[in-house]
Amino acid sequence: MNELETLFYQGGEKNGHDKKVLNKIWEDWKKFASYAFNKSHATCYSWVAYQTAYLKANYPSEYMAAVLSSNLNDVDKLSKYMDECRAMGIEVLGPNINESYRNFSATKDGRIRFGLAGIKGVGVSCVESIVEERNKNGAYKDIFDFVQRINQGACNRRALESMALAGAFDDFKDIKREDFFAVNPRGESYSETLMRFGQRYQVSQQEMQNSLFGAFDAIEVATPPIPNAEPWSQLERLNRERELVGMYLSAHPLDPYYMEVTYGCDTPLAEVATHSDQLDRELTMGGLVVDFQTRMGKKGGQFGILKIEDYSGSFEFMLFGNKFVDYQKFGVPGYAIVVKGAYERGYGDNIRFNVRTIDLLENLKGKMVNNLVITLRDEDLANVDFLKTHLGAKGDNRCDLFFRMKDQVGGNHVLLRSRKPIAVDKHLMEALREARIQFEVNAQI
Fold first, then answer.
1. What is the model's pTM?
2. Based on the domain organization, do 68 and 26 belong to the same domain?
3. What is the overall mean pLDDT for the chain?
4. Residues 225, 359: one domain?
5. Which residues contact 303 (CB under 8 A, 6 or more apart)?
């Protein structure tokens, strides 16, 4: 810049330009130069971008595991990158005491395992001691083997309960999440009993090692019987899981209504606000009620604030007047509902979303999805055996099935209708995507 400054002014004046104008241009350039990329800087960024693209293309699971790990404490970003994993066809599994590490990690079959350090209430020292013991002496066989081997100085009862709620022990078939919180006649939870059992076992092992008589003094510590606690509802299990990891992992409360929410509704909740300029266009949204509040209006009447959530995000709907009277009954957390409404111009030229109707998604199962059109190429014909289990199957979500096939001779597309309806659900949609088969739901035929 310093070398060019004199040449710039000399050349500019020689070409007849005003010195004030030249000075203004040069000063602007100097400001830009304070943060502009020089060639070496730009080259480094390009090189990093190339390396990143290469890793994502050739090692997708390992790359996305690293991306998720770098955002372990940011739930919003985690949700965003989890969606990216789904779009890439990578399954993200919940935490597992025998497979998870501190951070997210790629499995041998190309999936990603949730990191134990991402569970609230589980400290880094606890995770490191669990992984170290596992690497040293092998996988944990059951919950008793786990509490017998862990470092109780690093892992306390709260950590045990947090891992249980997050599903880290789900592979231990003898115990379920609810059992950890069953209370005995003395008012102690089973998690307390387990920790005390593990402590007694470790003390007895230490005493045996210190004894002059060694194995002759070995004391058998009886395992406490596992209580058969009353199972929680699916919604309660998932909500507790979400509290610990910040999102739903093992399933989603809306999964029974996946087809209605994903294909029967035309607007994801995360996009409702973007349609505020489209007055009187009716939008249809489906989701789970997560909160409902009643407030007093300025004129004394009541109104409601109904917050619902779907796979994409959440939105708050206002219920005024008769709408509050008619639809406040749907303001129960856990209800799966569908909302129809539109942005309208109100008092004082204000634009706001006006709810028109609300109904339970349960009442609309089988009514919001009309057809499934599958486009088949010759190479796809060998990969559609999984459709047989859905053809003619009983259930609420059944619709017409069509096959769009290309005439190899004339080059025209032929639409064939199946004699049997097909049962559609989330698993079928995922299977179609995994097989890279083109399909369309609610197609115009």
1. 0.73
2. no
3. 90
4. no
5. 294, 295, 297, 318, 319, 320, 321, 324
